[in-house]
Fold these 2 entries.
Entry 1:
Amino acid sequence: MNKSPYKKNIITIVILCCALILIGRLFYIQVLDTSYKITAANNVLRYEVQYPARGLLFDRNGELLVGNKTTYDIMVVPREMKSIDTLDLCSLFNISYTQCKNILDDVQRKRKRQGYQAAIFLKQVPAEIYALFQEKAFKYPGFYAQARTLRSYPRNIAGNLLGYVTEVDTANIRRNPYYKMGDYIGKSGIEASYEDVLRGRKGVSIYERDVHNQIKKSYDDGKYDTTAIAGKDLICTIDIHLQEYGELLMQNKIGSVVAIDPGTGEILALITAPGIDPSLLVGINRNFQLLQMNPLKPLFTRAVMSSYPPGSVFKMANALIGQQERVLTPESRYGCAMGYKVGRGVECHAHPSPTDLRQSIQMSCNAYYCHVFRSIIDNPKYDNINDAFNQWRKYVQSFGFGIKLDTDIHNELAGTLPTTDTYDRIHGKGRWKSLSIISLAIGQGEIGATPLHLANFTALIANKGYYYTPHVVRNVVGKPEHQKYKEKHYCDIDSAYFTPVIDGMYLTVNGGPGSTAGWVRIPDIDMCGKTGTAQNPHGENHSVFMSFAPRENPKIAIAVYMENAGWGSTWAAPVASLMTEYYLTGEIKRKDMEARIMAGNFLSKESRAKKRK
Amino acid sequence: MKRQYNIFSQLDYTTIGIFFLLILIGWLSVYASVYNEEHSSAFDISQRYGMQLIWIISSIVLAIIVLLVSHKFFSVLAYIIYGAIILLLILVLVAGVEVNGSRSWFVIGSVRLQPAELAKVATSLALAKLMCQHNFNLKKPQNVLSVGIIIALPMALILLQSDTGSALVFVSLLLMLYREGFSGWVVSIVAFCAILFILSIIWEPVSVLLFIWIICLALYALFHKNKYKVLLMASLSIGSYFLLANYLLPLLKLSIDSDHLFLGICILTLIVEGIIAVRKKIRHFWLILLIFGSAVTVTSSVDYVYDHLLQQHHRDRIEDMLGLIDDPQGVGYSVYQSKIAIGSGGMTGKGFLNGTQTKYNFVPEQSTDFIFCTVGEEWGFAGVLIVIALFVWLLIRILEISERQRDSFARIYGYCVTSIIGFHVLFNIAMTIGLAPVIGIPLPFISYGGSSLWAFTLLLFILLKFDAVKWE
């Protein structure tokens, strides 16, 4: 029967074909497809993460602003779980049976994907319950607790400024691979802008484990293990007492207060009202949704995110520019007949007339600044209005308006500063003149500035021509102050031109009859200020005030913007005045003024909707 | 008394070399797969690698004994050996111990013996003995029947032990039968049926029908002179099915099962083709009819076989292999982990004793049925390439040895060895990488286990003995 060598060849070919199929498949899974390598690592390596404590925040005097408290995440390794007394577990953690069952069912569903990795059973269990759990832990195989730190606030202040910490979302994870599901991240305020410093670095111990999740040994002799590095602490520039006092004054009001130390650019207080109580956003709760739904938008940090017309406080800008452009001298006088009666005109209130530069600030004359503004814009020095306007704009920008100040505050807004294009769009190219944009004379119209801009402008005046970039964090503990906060930013106005303006502001508070803010004078302290009443077409005018004190060697520059509160002198000025007094003397002597301000309430709908007269 | 040969000067040392290489690789892999720091002595017989060393030594002793006894011992006593093994297979059903759901083990002290492994040797010898007779011809039905009985008897007994994998190994003997004159068509049809079986589990009946139909039409085209007519026929039948199923029947509000509808169309087309074939005297039309008929029968009987003849763990494994169940931690766990182990090996592997998957017992049965994972993980693609190359070399070498025998007993026996080792290698490796269901058969010479190592050594060295004395 030895007859068919061709059959031997066919069998040989069959063998070779089978071998080729096997080799092809092996080549695919071993060389081409890399997913198996990752799975093998997940299989065998157990990553034990050590979460570092987040850095603490201290105020400018070393008082604790933000601390930490320890809570525990209860973890469960589904495969290690045995039958347990679910009801007992429920009562231990104070959860309902259905809730517990849902969690456990979900964990069991994940079991297939997760293998021996732990899943979260309950998040953020307080220390008291953790202690109870530890006693009973032996009854619950597969369950264990993992320590996590949450924020705690000794005083519930400055929520908007400090920001809050929450679990990372998928977008964070995608942007930065450092973050893994379940990590915490600063979502706003200082927590967000200093996230990298505050969070520290997670540590990880990698163990090899076998199929029963028994840890066999440290992976590669611990070569890839890292120790957790705690977050670094921050020294803030905030004065915790001033902040707290300011928030007290601003209760039941809408608006913000920004106080800056002009000598350093350090922000002493940054108040947003209504603000958030930072402790509300600690841990898991529904407060965030509640805050989000609040019509007063407490999550919105008005102090840096709300762009308002600055109002009369902007007159100083024009006073400075006018002098620098040589179209105005301190002795220049303009008359006022209850307003500027050219074109549509600008109204004014009753005050002695005519005024010089100082008096114009003291009495806040609208007509005066219409004259000043027109002489700036219609300056024959410039060939056309565009050039003149651009020059004006350049000055205003040098005061910090219309730009982001590059502070370390999250979500800082640039505000708005119109350009020639803006007016070309509104009026048509070449079809507008100084009278068309006369609102800018008194800080109305197309200009928008945040309270931070106003405070910075105040600091600039106090410094007679320069400002430091405002900032809320002085330094990371153990590191020097950031160099950029030590740089002076000079504006384009000569220092000498500030004197009459400051004189005017001094008179505003201390000038006796005719002064717009005479009643907020602080005994023994030379406070310079300027009122503003920003016109609001949607309701009651906004009350604005900016001031600094003392006049020589100023220690605090402050801007108050209060929505729908009417005259600048009635509400904003006393807040600034009281805070200045509190900061400089450490006490309040004018108790009646304080009581009146604290009693003020502008939250009700009627007062917000009330049409201006 | 004839002149005494020195048997050792006539041996095929290439084969023996490959044998030793494979055994060495096997022992290293077993060592790696059960290695842990506490028992690192290679001779610790409380560990599997220690035991395997004993098995290896005893196998070598066995091989030497085989080489020393007369080759006539195997050819003369073939039936007696076969009978003895059959008795053992029956005995194990009564006195055996159940391990992993199979009652196929004798336990003597701490040693376990699996007669099913030895049955492969015995059956090969019996087949060779039967088929080397001068009047034997595979064209004679009674001869085919005897062959069938010799193969089916141990197969049935092993099936009774619930060791389907070992039973399936006997199917591989078809390869030997093919060499010895069995029709290639029969072998192809068996392979075709196997593919159909798998397809009819995965696919909808109508898709399987479509597959059968396309194959039939392709065959028809092979025999038909006018290929365009076949193409026309194909598009007409398939086109009319889609037209009917999707538009016409819903319009007439008739509901006929799609597979019945398609079957009807196919039968109609076949009748038309049949008439044409008779007229034009196209040969082999009966073949197409046969294929179509049997294919349809196989497909429709799959459900029965699947639900009644196979056991749950086979169904699970088959369904998993076919990707019908996606549950990495459940049924397909072993294959899933095995693929991870092999896949994570990469090009050059993680290095000896560095395989995390194998070292930490992620793969069940990794020193026995899944030993290939250890090779794949620690030695990578380079390693598996060498192992596969060694096996291919061995198989081709055995083929050559078989073909050069003057004695048809030895040749037939050699082909049995090729078939059995080839089947083991193919299906063992295929199952570790998810290409075949997990039928639980060892990788020759490499897997841990005394019975299988003894059986494969016997298989190989009996052939080498015959080869050494072929000029005697």
Entry 2:
Amino acid sequence: MFARRTVLMAAAFTALSVAAARPAAAVDLTMYYPVAVGGPVTKIIDDMVARFEKDNSDIKVTAVYAGNYTDTMTKAMTAMKGGQPPQLSVLLSTDVFTLMDENAIVPFDSLVSDTAWFKDFYPAFMANGQIDGKTWSIPFQRSTIVLYWNKEAFKEAGLDPEKAPASWDEMTEMSKKLIKKDGSGNTTRWGVEIPTTGYGYWMLQALAIQNGQKMMNEAGTEVYFTAPKTVAALDYWVDLSRKHNVMPTGSIDWATLRTDFLEGKTAMMWHTTGNLTAVKDAAKFPFGVAMLPAKERRGSPTGGGSFYIFKNASPEQQKAAVKFIQWMTAPERAAEWSMKTGYVAVSPAAYKTKAMKDYAKGFPAATVARDQLEYAVPELSVHDNGRIYKFVNDAVQAAVTGSQKPQEALAAAQAQSDRVLRASK
Amino acid sequence: MRGRTHPVEAVAAWLLALVWLAPLAYAFWSALHPAAYATSFSLSAPFTLENFARAWKQAPFARYYLNTIVLVTLVLAGQLILSTLAAYAFARFRFRGSGIAFALVLLQLMIMPDVLIVENYRAIAKLGLLDTIPAIALPYLASAFGIFLLRQTFKSVPQELVEAARVEGAGPLGILWWVYVPLARPTYIAFGLVSVSYHWNNFLWPLIVTNSVEARPLTVGLAVFGAPETGVDWSVITAATVMTMAPLLIAFLLFQRQFVQSFMRAGIR
Amino acid sequence: MTDAAVSPPVAERRAGSQAWWNAVNAWLLLLPAAVLLVAFTHWPILATIRHSLFITRRNGTEVFVGLDSYQAMAADPIFWKALINNFWFALGTIPTSIALALLMAIWVNRNMRGRGFLRLAYFTPTVLPMIAVANIWLFFYTPDYGALDQLRSLFGLGGWNWLGDPSTVMGCLIVMVIWKEAGFFMIFYLAALQQLSPDLDEAASIEGASRWYIFRRITFPLLMPTTLFVAINAVINSFKLVDHLVIMTKGGPNNASTLLLYYIYEVAFTFQDSSYAATLTVVLLILLSAVALIKFGYLDRRIHYQ
């Protein structure tokens, strides 16, 4: 009784203060966006927001850039607990369980006039956000992992510069040829690098999928880190550095890997397609982009961020947020976004726009990540995601640094995850 | 010990100094040359301010500067006023419980707000101050260090001066303002410099309580700037780094003697 | 107050109710600082202890769980790792930076050519933000094309993954922190050295004592209070210095460089588990209280507040 009265009063107060502050019936939206402040992406988002506001003068969107995905999620959750959540946010598509558990978000189903809209997007990107028959997120900054290769290095090593490795064994063999040493036996160019910081779990999942192993169940309550094929996937990863000596030992930094590749310190790298435009703009050598190699099958987890709408937002704000999200994900904008960054455009219609067709004609690498969707599976997403990611990342780092055997490291991660996930069942 | 220095020692001292300056020299080198030279040193590399221009354009550093300046001013003003009043009470009044009160103040020298981030965040949230500059400043406004330092200084003020002021009709606050504060000037400068450099550089707490550009100080701005999702541009980041530390560095070079003496004074008891 | 006899209070001549007025005045002066100190230091300490005994359910209700969180902590390998790391971090940074600080102070205190420059060079890292320092050193340690590996390549040595290898990451961070802090500690020694009487040295050198002998038997013992003071400060610093982890390693690889306060930050704000964060904070508070006890209970007896 008391609680309901408080809610009513709070609603009345909110309505009053909104009305008082804004006579022009404008709706203010705060959006958290996962990107470093500065850098080209901020400019692109700011520009799109400005154009949206021009078309919709009654809505004002403030984008807050708070660092990488983890930082932004931390900020959003912290702000929510502090009573000042944003109205919408782009966060990892895999944070959905955590956001649901925290009672932070609302599904889109009741907010849109026609749920047919959900069918416009690639099903692979919708998968992470559709739970219990409801749609909790709309894809935007989405990716898959792709393999970048340095064609000049391939030529130098006597390999066909137009042909990327298609299987694990091929990647190992090619890497052995690509590795370059100086007079005193120090490596000046590595064969391949797979990053281990920040998104180690993502890379491990890619390897596990290729080995034919799922990493979690659909309800997000179980993980399969000690499955023999997951262990074999990590074994292969570790072998690249410790047995075949084609990858540096120790952890490989996600953020500096692009520089490694551009500096020619590695002939191949696994990285998000979201890096594509930046690599294209900075590379001083011809490079190619390919789907990840196969073991039993090809495959990559999807990745990246989706739009969420927060529960605390007023109905007007939620409606305005949907309007904004629909505008941002419309085919022309999705195409523009993809061309400017390298992320995958989220709907097939975007690839049918003229601008995108022309772009892909001149730069075929632009559609590789999209084509890979055929083999893609949803990214690792479970309850209490932040913790589980830490366990897997720790295990990956323990293995690549040689402080634990893959089997051992993954067993520890599995045990820790089981303990955390027990609460969610 | 002040006698002649053995040449070997002189060489060692100079070598150590050069090693100590090397990281800084590197930062300036990288910030002032094109990105292509960030990883390969060459004397013929062309000089450029381009990195600064790009960093300045890519992130709202002007706003960050403003926030930091507002922050350190707010903290310093609050600390000076509160510490002066409290130190005066401890130095010149006899009252029941003063011993325990002073011990409770000194506790903050050991357990600083820096380690109480979880509960202080709760408190700031309850006050509805999240994502504001006062939120960053509040936990630091009452400074045990400031109170301690000023109490020491006030205690050394000659009693005759106090008596003279009283004869002229000054009340307790008048005496504080006309006698104690002017005599404690060097302590104020010392404390001020230490406080400003501490809060200019403070990071973890501001990171936690701020979200938006409007409240973020330079250090947090720099950290967010240097945490890109997809890759790192070293030259621009070092340029931003140099910008962040430049004001304090320049102030330090200009007022080197005061800085060193202030830190010395603050450390002597 | 023990020293009331030394410094007579402002108003004491009219006894009786005057004492009462005195107390009111004093507390009024103290009030603003006291309120803030209680709100942001004393109250949070008590609240931390309380929250460590409760957990918050998803629906927002608090449940008393007693020492459950402490049991979970005892079984948490990352907590132990962080604690042990804190120990090594302190052991790695404190003695070396104190020794270097003393050496620097002795050099700068001499009539050496360019001592102004030397003092400047040693002290400069102290005024820089840790976050900026971390950015610069991050590039130093970057494998292959980072400054350190480029330097090594001049001697024909290969690249090394400094921050990515558990065996070197802590050492790298320790070196950086020594660089950052030694100049700060130098100042305290410099202040102490300048208060020592030069006659002592001269007397000793006339006696024909060697320089090392003078240092070992005269200077160093006289500097003992300074050394203890610096050591205490350094220990406290080592518990709250985590800014660099945010930039350089995020506590990795595999928690090899994580420290207690950073883990608290992670648990509280990334995992949103504030009751466990409170439990971890209690450990940090106990450690700091132990340092405080050593300082106030033992050391300050010799160098009491004047």
